[in-house]
Amino acid sequence: MAQSGAAGQNTGNGRAAAGSGLLSRLASALPLARHEAQAYTQRRAIERHSLWLDPPLDARGLPVLLVGGMGSTPALLAPMGDLLKRLGCRVEVAPVRFGVDCGEATAHAVGNALSELVETASAPAIVIGHSRGGQFARAVATRQPEQVRGLITLGSPLTRMLAVHPLLLAHLFALGALGAVGTPGLLRPSCRWGACCAPLRADLTGPFPGAVPFLSVYSAADRVVDWRSSLDPAARHREIVTSHGGLIWDPASLTVVVEELAVLLGPDAEAPAGRGSCRVARSRCSRRSAC
């Protein structure tokens, strides 16, 4: 009987977990369908771009952790992830659960993923965060600076946590209401004002480790996140012209990311076999006296 009761409890827990996952998925279902279709289309376009056809550097196994935002899936990050793999990076996608869970819990999961990647690669990693994922990425870089070779955020609301379009803000409040009544896997009002996410809020507004290079990429054409909130005073800033989603798949954004990787790699940035030097690194350094 005890075994039967335990089995029933496990079954109930399994159903609850499945229900939680379903609710999280439904919370972002409509934008996911549209954005994943865009990502698939852009993935095909990137394969025809010079960054793909003529890789400008060989990253030699550089570990990179990609951190998605709200509604994020591996498919959404695939255009950038696949390009980075083609450049020789060792890419992992952080488990953000569609980016709709408690902020501090998600930041903790990202930190664990970073530690595992760094241990496996035996080298500090580049952390790249898009949208809300940039908030998690900044917090983790603040907490684990020895594991971060560089931080790149893309269209992330860093100086104001809720600097987003009113429609998205309404969506967040709806999710928070569901989380407040006990729906697992969803953020709650306490994530904004309560104690649960106080550490995350402190790491977003507090000092950033000066030894970690930090680049914030933004677009004034972004209609989802207020671009001014991306101007973190601890970061260098780079503006491009694209949409919010384009920050993870537009060739203009991908080019900026590759340029930054070349700078972060420094002498470790090698040209692909048969080439004499890293074109991106040389081009980028010509504009940076610090190089």
UniProtKB/TrEMBL annotation:
Gene3D superfamilies hit by this protein: alpha/beta hydrolase
Source organism, top-level taxon: Bacteria
Name of one Pfam family that matches: Palm_thioest
Protein name: Alpha/beta hydrolase
Organism (species): Amycolatopsis albidoflavus
Lineage of the organism: Bacteria, Bacillati, Actinomycetota, Actinomycetes, Pseudonocardiales
